[in-house]
Amino acid sequence: MAMAMMSDSGASRLRRQLESGSFEARLYVKQLSQQSDGDRDLQEHRQRIQALAEETAQNLKRNVYQNYRQFIETAREISYLESEMYQLSHLLTEQKSSLETIPLTLLPAGAAAAAAGGEEGGGAAGGRDHHHHHHLRGQAGLFPAPGGGPRDGAGPGEDGKQRTLTTLLEKVEGCRHLLEKPGQYLVYNGDLVEYEADHMAQLQRVHGFLMNDCLLVATWLPQRRGMYRYNALYPLDGLAVVNVKDNPPMKDMFKLLMFPESRIFQAENAKIKREWLEVLEETKRALGEKKRREQEEAAAAAPRGMPPAAAKAGNPFEEEEEEEEEEDEPAAPEAEEEKVDLSMEWIQELPEDLDVCIAQRDFEGAVDLLDKLNRYLEDKPSPPPVKELRAKVDERVRQLTDVLVFELSPGRSLRGGPKATRRAVSQLIRLGQCTRACELFLRNRAAAVHTAIRQLRIEGATLLYIHKLCHVFFTSLLETAREFETDFAGTDSGCYSAFVVWARSAMGMFVDAFSKQVFDSKESLSTAAECVKVAKEHCRQLEDIGLDLTFIIHTLLVKDIQGALHSYKEIIIEATKHRNSEEMWRRMNLMTPEALSKLKEEMRACGVGSFEQYTGDDCWVNLSYTVVAFTKQTMGFLEEALRLYFPELHMVLLESLVEIILVAVQHVDYSLRWEQDPEKKAFIRQNASFLYETVLPVVEKRFEEGVGKPARQLQDLRSASRLLRVNPESTTSVV
């Protein structure tokens, strides 16, 4: 006994410790680990916490059930009042209609008196029911309602009930096993349209079948006219009916509440909606009265031998509630302490105010209301009323989030730039959904960038188009980065990583458009180099905000630039081979001093400063046209390639240069070995000297200046020429 009391006191102390407002799980576990003697203590403590968790879950379950019952009862009472108002209105309308349409003066006195008596007696007592059931029979169609409804004292005969239920089972697939109950019959049925509860979007056409103890919802089978498929079955004692106020174009609707879900249906018109509301409430009331009578009869019969436990079988929680009340009488003061004042007008109207703010797109006002509520409930306990309020508010939060997400969806208008998204993003961040706001913001901006690139007009001049493309893209990227920094300042740093990933993805989009215009159209290497230079200059603008994406451009363009270098290399090699095939080894005659001056200027531009020594009298040049053309073309290729250069292209550029130079070197070597004319041989040796001693050193020096380090392959190629100079008669090929 003493051990049990100690265990109970330990559990109570543990419960109070876990429920305290200053409880911190990490500190608690740390203290527990320090105080425990070993693994066994920790396991025992874990078992106590687990038992406490199970007890809490049971209490929560009990409270949910109790609150749900109270909610159903409250909703039922509200519906009763509304139903009575509908009935009163309908009675007055019927009596007025009867008095206006029946000319009593034309009837015999006896008939008039009988009609008046029937109107006064039957109109008040049964006229409403007569009209109602007449309409039910009209509405039923394939499922005629029985002669009496829930308000009818006698009710339909057994044969009529059975026929109606049999017809129902034949027309609805998948419900036979659910409706085989004795005494069950159809009360009312009709076509309805179901709407989505959050956005009021039409979902599907359904048919409702109201039985005396449940409501069956079936969906239409379009391919089989007049047939339905089972959708759901709801017991009436767990169902609440709520009228939905008309808000055009949404009208003639009512809501069914079945814990924990709800469904909204639209009737064909206001009259049918009223009938659904009335007959549902009337049938529920009849079912409740029937169950109450059965309980009274069972309670009356209990002293005559019925076990007490049988009376409590209806509610699985009542036994636990009674035991708890017997064991723990002093629990009332604790419940008193847990009460939270929710009577303020702004709290009572909070769900409706949130609905209004969402409908009016006043997102800031909605989030302000939520912040106000959270501050008010921050340090307060969570009794059932608070949990119920939070459930309602959470539903509105979900609706608000969906609207904000829609505002940021790429399908919305993308005009206004990044600042147009600030409102929705800031409210999502305030709602604690920073990661989602970041994802949606970046997705929206990606769609905006993609649209801006697609709307660019393709210009005839590639360089002009690239200027426009770079301006549009990098300006958008810069604005997005600044807006991102403004919106997400002070948030989780992981968002900045997401932005870098997004920037790389956006850069891929830019490079696709860039490459399609520059490289796929086979532009010259000089044009490609100028376009790449423009892109790099725009990319450096991002360094002002600490974002360097130059390496991403290099990575994404490396294959295209490699392809361009390879293609231009092949063009130079083919042109050189073609000139070599027509080589006559004759001096160049430029005919005019202007042409000679121009050639000297071109060679100086190529870096060949000693070209003067190869010029002769008048307009002659002591070099072959093939060697001069090769020099200009090779140096031009090197200059353009160096404008495109970055480390990933080092070997490609070097190998291309070596291949181009080898074509000229091999041709000179071949000509020296096979030329028999001494005069021509001397001229060939002079061209070889220019090639090896002037051109190759210039290429080597310019490559080292552009790259920042010497090229061993070029040095080896020049040193191999010594064999040619030492033994020009050799037949050994210099390769």
TrEMBL record:
Coiled coil: none annotated. Residues 298-314 have a biased composition (Low complexity). It comes from the Eukaryota. Residues 185-285 form the PH domain. It is found in: Cell projection, Growth cone; Cytoplasm, Perinuclear region. Residues 287-296 have a biased composition (Basic and acidic residues). InterPro entries: Cullin_repeat-like_dom_sf, Exo84, Exo84_C, Exo84_C_1, Exo84_C_2, PH-like_dom_sf, PH_domain. Pfam families: Exo84_C, VPS51_Exo84_N. The exocyst complex is composed of EXOC1, EXOC2, EXOC3, EXOC4, EXOC5, EXOC6, EXOC7 and EXOC8. Interacts (via PH domain) with GTP-bound RALA and RALB. Interacts with SH3BP1; required for the localization of both SH3BP1 and the exocyst to the leading edge of migrating cells. Component of the exocyst complex involved in the docking of exocytic vesicles with fusion sites on the plasma membrane. Belongs to the EXO84 family. This is Exocyst complex component 8. It comes from Pipistrellus kuhlii.
